[in-house]
Design a protein that fits this description.
By secondary structure, this protein is of the alpha/beta class. The chain has 14 helices and 25 strands. Strand 12 and strand 13 form a beta hairpin. It is globular and about 75 Å long.
Length: 471
């Protein structure tokens, strides 16, 4: 089995606050284990094979996306690339920044997910966006090459997503309401001011002259928040004001900083026209660079700037499970399985029953994914006990003929799946390994690849702004 190889065609669609982009990537798979070892198929190469032009995200109003025009863009770019939805095997449609807060964001995203093919997921959420943008920009590789702790900022039109890496390892993520399109300008007049900016600068109103001095004050406040988030200045009022999700926990102080996103283009290549894009992006970009250099920060430029998130969505959203997988009676793909995280092995069956109840109506039991750490080298007795506990807790699910899905981080999925099959004769069972899935996330599992030896898996978050808040 050591000659197992394969290839997946992956799509990335990024609906950002300012721009919409599409890429296609080829993900090459190969067994990295030795001839006499347990097969371990990994993604060994990611090649972007098509990049769309950068479009301004179509809007009907400040609160609604133009779903029809967005769909037209995707269909046009598919035709230009010579692909059809059914040719796509994995990827992500990711909705980011302020776009995720539009009134019809979920409807537009669901429609695009269908257009993008059965194997492609729709996803949003600042944690995942931070990771995808940073990896798409190559920040993880920069941190590894420089052997340093690096804080990456992906600064778009509506938000700034932070990812902290130490020698290539992700430590934490964060998000601030800092972006170049939070103030829009038309014909020298302020045309739009976001609620967060309006709260901090009430004198900046729609219809007022777009005086550079006023926007410079806003840009300085935003840059101050970024400095404070990066530990270059003590936490203060602007970090507290612009924080939207959480800031990256600086367990290790960053030695260098990198940037991506639309505003990053203005950091590395300043524009002479302060309102070149009809917003405050060029002013913000120049201000960020000046303020960081004044603090003596070491700045690094990654391989991607404005395309970082879409490259991440197309090339870094998929994980592979395949060292010791087990599946029987399962129809693929499995989509949007809510994750129930089991952090303790004590009282496991009761914890599974409680988790199952969170996502089931009375009298029903809907499919979920049970996620747990697992054991490195379990004894046969431990394996039997674990399978018995899981089977007992999941009985309402399996009694209805639904699939029992378990994700473990250690390489024990095959043995655990075999024991579960003994506990649940004829049951639909899927056990995947090498997958960490947190509570509140969702999991998609695509059809087996590489002669059935691996399962492509996408862990995602879904977060949209509602009247009650984020869900």
């Amino acid at each position: 089995m050591n000659d197992v190889k394969g290839e997946l065609l992956s799509v990335g669609i990024d609906l950002g606050t300012s721009t919409t982009q599409i890429i296609l990537s080829k993900l090459r798979l190969e067994n990295s284990a030795g001839a006499f070892a347990v097969p371990r198929v990994e993604i060994v190469d990611k090649e972007v094979v098509y990049r769309s032009p950068v479009y301004f995200t179509p809007l009907i109003s400040d609160t609604r996306l133009d779903g029809a025009k967005i769909r037209e863009i995707v269909e046009r770019e598919y035709e230009a690339a010579g692909v059809k939805p059914e040719m796509l095997q994995t990827g992500a449609v990711i909705i980011t920044g302020e776009t995720a807060r539009k009134e019809n964001a979920r409807e537009v995203l669901d429609a695009l997910a269908g257009l993008a093919g059965d194997f492609v997921v729709a996803t949003a959420g600042p944690d995942l966006e931070s990771v995808l943008a940073a990896r798409g920009a190559g920040a993880d590789k920069l941190s590894e090459q420089e052997r340093c702790c690096l804080l990456h900022y992906d600064i778009g039109g509506g938000t700034s997503n932070l990812a902290l890496f130490d020698r290539g390892k992700l430590l934490s993520t964060g998000c601030l309401d800092v972006g170049g399109r939070l103030v829009k300008v038309e014909n020298g007049v302020v045309a739009y001011v976001s609620e967060k900016v309006r709260q901090g600068f009430p004198e900046l109103t729609v219809g007022s002259p777009a005086a550079k001095e006023k926007l410079q004050d806003v840009a300085d406040a935003m840059a101050e928040a970024l400095l404070e988030a990066g530990g270059l200045k003590p936490p203060g009022r602007w970090l507290e004001h612009f924080i939207t999700h959480k800031t990256a926990e600086l367990t290790v102080k960053p030695a260098c900083f990198s940037f991506s996103g639309g505003v990053a283009d203005c950091i590395w290549s300043p524009r002479s026209d302060d309102f070149a894009y009809g917003d405050m992006g060029p002013i913000l970009g120049k201000t960020i660079r000046r303020r960081f250099e004044e603090e003596g920060a070491r700045l690094l430029q990654g391989g991607e700037t404005i395309r970082a998130t879409v490259v991440g969505a197309g090339s870094h959203a998929t994980e592979l499970s395949g060292s010791t997988i087990f599946y029987q009676g399962v129809s693929f793909p499995l989509k949007n399985l809510p994750v129930v995280r089991l952090d303790s092995m004590d009282g496991l069956s009761d914890a599974i029953a409680r988790g199952l109840a969170l996502f089931s109506e009375e009298g029903s039991a809907d499919p979920v994914c049970f996620s747990l750490r697992g054991k490195e080298n379990p004894s046969y007795e431990e394996l039997c006990a674990l399978a018995g506990e899981i089977a007992a807790g999941a009985k309402p699910l399996t009694d209805r003929g639904e699939a029992l899905v378990v994700a473990v981080e250690t390489d024990m999925a095959k043995a655990l799946g075999q024991r579960l099959a003994a506990e649940i004769p004829g049951g639909k069972i899927l056990c995947v390994d090498a997958i960490h899935a947190a509570q509140g996330s969702y999991m998609d599992v695509m059809a087996p690849a590489c002669r059935g030896t691996v399962l492509p898996v996408v862990i995602k978050t879904l977060a949209f702004e509602t009247k009650e808040g984020v869900r």
